[in-house]
Specification:
Layout (H helix, E strand, L loop, with lengths): L12 H24 L3 H27 L13 H8 L4 H25 L2 H30 L9 H7 L5
Helix pairs in contact: 1-2, 2-5, 4-5
Length: 169
């Protein structure tokens, strides 16, 4: 008779620490972009992403409390790309490609963890993974718009540009 193994792995303090660190760094990046970009459509998207990350942080804190761990200590590293984004040293295309790669990496990691997780953690991980996927989809849309207009993130007339297109010469 064949038995089926059911995963019983639980999230460790290391997993939760990594999630918390990523979430805080993502929040800071998204919030800063929302504050600094002139394009109201893009700024609104990043504002929503920042709100998502704030909600994720709250869920992580509740998860930490639910499994009886002490608060996870987070040390934010000196991520040079993160600093380049905040200082505007990267092009909008580079920034968007970096954010897509970063969100995909976390989505993949959450997927791996969810496949190995027990029932206690699976909903939590699937929820967070889906949030990352949603961010990737919206960032991919913005990347396509940047390919059409390298200054897309600067466009204060974004809605008009979407509706009427670019003027032809």
């Amino acid at each position: 008779m064949t038995t089926v193994e059911t995963p019983n792995a639980t999230l460790s303090q290391q997993h939760l620490g990594l999630l918390m660190q990523y979430t805080i760094e993502a929040y800071k990046t998204f919030q800063k972009l929302a504050e600094n970009l002139p394009n109201p459509m893009v700024a609104t998207m990043f504002k929503q992403f920042a709100e998502d990350e704030r909600g994720t942080r709250d869920l992580i804190e509740k998860k930490i409390a639910a499994i009886g761990e002490s608060r996870v200590r987070v040390t934010l590293g000196g991520d040079l790309l993160f600093q380049d984004i905040l200082e505007g040293s990267m092009s909008y295309r580079e920034t968007t490609e970096f954010l897509i790669a970063r969100e995909r990496t976390m989505e993949k990691k959450l997927g791996e963890w969810s496949r190995a997780a027990g029932p206690r953690d699976r909903h939590f991980l699937v929820y967070l993974m889906s949030s990352k996927r949603a961010h990737v989809v919206e960032l991919e849309r913005e990347l396509e718009l940047i390919k059409l207009d390298g200054d897309w993130f600067k466009r204060e007339d974004a809605e008009d540009r979407i509706v009427h297109g670019s003027p032809t010469a």
